[in-house]
Design goal:
Length: 168
């Protein structure tokens, strides 16, 4: 089974650690524990009819790096980035857009998955207002809740599919 490195990027408090904890251990902890530096997790994405199984080595970054992360040693050999925003903090959507652009410029051809997390905090009928950079055609945002587990597995399965299509 091939292994690929995936960076988990986004501002502090958007739910990156909660997403990976839900993915790997199927648990959610209400106690906020900030990541210091980076934590590394392993997740096996099952094979599909169109893609072999894949091991994702998920690097959960602390969020303090901002756009400087692209020059950090952590980024070496990254096949993809999962970039996360918090639906309850609109400014994190702007950061998501900037990180997505920065990753694409620093690592052309690498896969990105864009995530709007904490949907469980959104009131019924509320809409997500996207910044212009994310409202362009071809942008797909995964809507997730680490608390409920909604769409977490899909994000990483789609990321594995994108990595496989690019043959990185």
């Amino acid at each position: 089974m091939i292994a690929r490195k995936v960076m988990l990027l986004g501002e502090i408090g958007v739910g990156k650690s909660s997403i990976v904890q839900r993915l790997v251990f199927d648990r959610f902890d209400m106690q906020y524990k900030p990541t210091i530096g980076v934590d590394v997790y392993r997740y096996e994405v099952p094979a599909t009819a169109t893609r072999p199984g894949m091991v994702l080595i998920v690097w959960d970054t602390d969020g303090n790096f901002g756009e400087l992360i692209f020059r950090h040693v952590y980024m070496r050999e990254a096949a993809a980035a999962v970039i996360v925003a918090d639906v309850s903090r609109p400014q994190t959507l702007e950061t998501l857009a900037a990180l997505e652009q920065g990753f694409r410029e620093a690592f052309p051809g690498r896969a990105t998955s864009l995530v709007v997390n904490k949907l469980d905090l959104l009131a019924q009928g509320d809409e997500i207002i996207l910044p212009e950079a994310l409202a362009r055609p071809g942008i797909h945002l995964h809507r997730t809740s680490a608390k409920t587990g909604s769409n977490i597995g899909t994000v990483f399965a789609d990321t594995a599919d994108a990595i496989d299509r690019r043959r990185l």
